[in-house]
Amino acid sequence: MGMKSKYDKLMRWAKIWVAQFGAVKNRRCEQGSNAVLIIKLDAIGDFLIWLDSAKEFRKLYPDKRLVLLCNTLNVEIAEATGYFDSIKSLNIKKFESDSSYRKSQLEKLSEEQYDLIIQTVYSRTIHMDIIAAAVPAYSKVGLQADESRSDLSRYITFKANRKKFDRVYDTLYPVSTDWLMEVKRNGELIRALGYTDFQTGIPFFNETDAKEKIPEGDYYVLFPGSSSVKKMWNTERFAGVADYIYKKTGWVGYVCGGMDEKHLYADLMAAKQPETKVVDYFGRTTLLELAEVIRHAKLVVSNDTSGIHFAAVTDTPAVCISGEYHFGRFLPYDCDKEFNDSHSPMYICHADMPCKRCVNGKITKECSSCVDRTGRYLCIDKITVEQVNAMIDKILKN
């Protein structure tokens, strides 16, 4: 699809969603429910990053009933934290694509009443604003929204309709104009809500009893998939890393990801050395089981995907193959509290190119050519097996 046709498609999408927004009444109610609705509809990785701030809502509202509205993908994790009194969920992909599902869910949500709605997402989308509008509340608050081009469809839609969407909220708290790691961005909201002394730290997910899938013996975990093919390192290079780890340690590699990524296991098997031992774990764990598999691993090697954030919240040594497109926002981890030696290392392997943070502009012609040729961003394609292995050596020395 050419750039013009892609842009035209996004514009059509934008008009549809603006019309959907216009059909939803911004519902209000009187105080008295004693409940706060916290909206966090991001995918898994973003939700894990948010855990550092999520634990603070109880301190902010000790006498309120805390209700979380999250992506269905994250229900298990949310329940295991114990941070919330009640959890509601939406299948976000279905909400965006299925009008009957969207209508039924909005009707259910409109039957609720809250003293306060907190929209937690910085890069919020129209459907998040539609949900905030549909739920009756005495007050609705959030952050001033991301104005970058990191999500082109959101950028196009918001560009001409910003004030309309913003009117859903009584207060939109100002944010720093600096490029912040998401842990720090989440912390801005907690401080704006009243916990002014809050200092962000590396998020942590407590150990659970979901240990049935933990392998015996010493092992490591590979995540060769990603939410976007453009962010995926060549599977043959993952095989090279697996060969290196096996030769150095004799450890077995457990290859994880969703069932829709299972074909990557066959690619890995075809590219690795015959003696290198790897096990197919695609789609074989729940999220809680996956967290425990990662927690007990010797190390994790991953693309920029939820696997690397599981490594962070379970305090597992990790190496991430990361691009430059939004470098510094989701990786590497950065927080207000200083890192200490007690936390396991996480090394971010990237190409260190001058076009860093291209989500705020345009990709270069050279990168566009690389995407056409390989399917990957140039900054991903430039990372070598030797670079990743060098970072693995740093972990092994510890």
Envelope shape: globular
CATH class of the largest domain: Alpha Beta
Number of domains: 2
Task: Estimate the helix proportion, in percent.
Answer: 40-55%
Q: What is the strand content?
A: 5-15%
**Count of DSSP E strands?**
12
Give the class from helix and strand content and strand pairing. alpha/beta
Rg is 22 Å
Write down the overall mean pLDDT: 91
Structure characterization notes:
With 398 residues, the chain is of the alpha/beta class. The protein has 2 domains: 10-192, 3-Layer(aba) Sandwich (Rossmann fold); 219-397, Glycogen Phosphorylase B (Rossmann fold, 3-Layer(aba) Sandwich), CATH 3.40.50.2000. Helices cover 40% and strands 15% of the residues. The strands form 2 sheets. It has a 6-stranded parallel sheet, sandwiched between helices. Helix 12 (263-271) links the parallel strand 8 and strand 9 (278-280). The longest helix has 20 residues, at 3-22. The model has no long low-confidence stretch (mean pLDDT 91).
Quick gist of this model?
With 398 residues, the protein is of the alpha/beta class.
Which helices and strands, and how do they pair?
Elements: H1 3-22, E1 35-40, H2 44-54, H3 57-60, E2 65-71, H4 75-81, E3 86-90, H5 92-97, H6 99-109, E4 114-119, H7 126-134, E5 137-143, H8 152-159, H9 162-166, E6 171-173, H10 182-192, E7 219-223, H11 235-249, E8 252-255, H12 263-271, E9 278-280, H13 287-295, E10 300-303, H14 306-313, E11 318-321, E12 346-349, H15 365-374, H16 378-381, H17 385-397
Parallel strand pairs: 1-2, 1-4, 2-3, 4-5, 5-6, 7-8, 7-10, 8-9, 10-11, 11-12
Helix pairs in contact: 1-7, 1-8, 2-10, 2-14, 11-12, 11-17
